[in-house]
Amino acid sequence: MSGGARTDTEAVEQANTAFYEAMERGDFEAIADLWLDERHGDVSCVHPGWPVLTGRGEVLRSYALIMANTEYIQFFLTDVKVSVVADTALVTCTENILSGGPAEDGAELGPLVGQLVVATNVFRRTADGWKVWSHHGSPVLAESDDEEDDEGAV
């Protein structure tokens, strides 16, 4: 691997990390800055359980909506793989998400919920660094309690 390729991979890893850290902070301006702008083509986003969102305005509105309805979110990324070819990079990872919604009944925070999502993030190189071109998150379906009980049966 050449030094340039390693540098690109590290830069993409940093951009990917910045994307998740901005979500954790609820920093809409940082999220907006990380997405590709219209000069470089249409962006797309699929949140788990959502239809495809196309175009910067629609995608950024979705993040504003998620942030407005999420009091707490933390991502633990695992299985991160980065592939860079020319000015395009592909990142696949598992998002181990811990989140909480608005508090109920006077509590400080709503109940925390864990979720497992596999994600594909596509980045494009720009004069301003690597920017998110597409994000696709798909939920990982957990085994039901019935399946677990069957495995333990003798």
- Global mean pLDDT: 88
Secondary-structure class: alpha+beta
Say how many strands there are.
6
Order of helices and strands: HHEEHEEEEH
Oligomer type: single chain
- For this structure, what is the CATH class? Alpha Beta
Low-pLDDT runs of 5+ residues are none
Largest sheet: 6 strands, mixed
- What is the approximate shape? globular
The portion of residues assigned to helices is: 25-40%
- Measured on Cα atoms, how large is the radius of gyration? 18 Å
Please state roughly what percent of the residues sit in beta strands, choosing from under 5%, 5-15%, 15-25%, 25-35%, 35-45% or over 45%.
35-45%
What is the helix tally?
4
Q: How far is it from the N-terminal to the C-terminal residue, by CA? A: 52 Å
CATH fold-type name: Nuclear Transport Factor 2, Chain: A
Q: Numbering strands along the chain, what is their spatial order in the largest sheet? A: 2-1-6-5-4-3
CATH architecture annotation name:
Roll
Domain SnoaL-like: 12-140
Organism: Streptomyces kanasensis
Protein name: 3-dehydroquinate dehydratase
Pfam families: SnoaL_3
Supply the key terms:
38% strand, 154 residues, six-stranded mixed β-sheet, alpha+beta, 6 strands, Nuclear Transport Factor 2, Chain: A
Give a verbal description of the structure.
Helix content is 33%, strand content 38%. By secondary structure, the chain is α+β, with helices and mostly antiparallel strands. It has one domain: Roll (Nuclear Transport Factor 2, Chain: A). It has a 6-stranded mixed sheet with strand order 2-1-6-5-4-3. Helix 1 runs antiparallel to helix 2. The chain starts with a helix and ends with a helix. The mean pLDDT is 88.
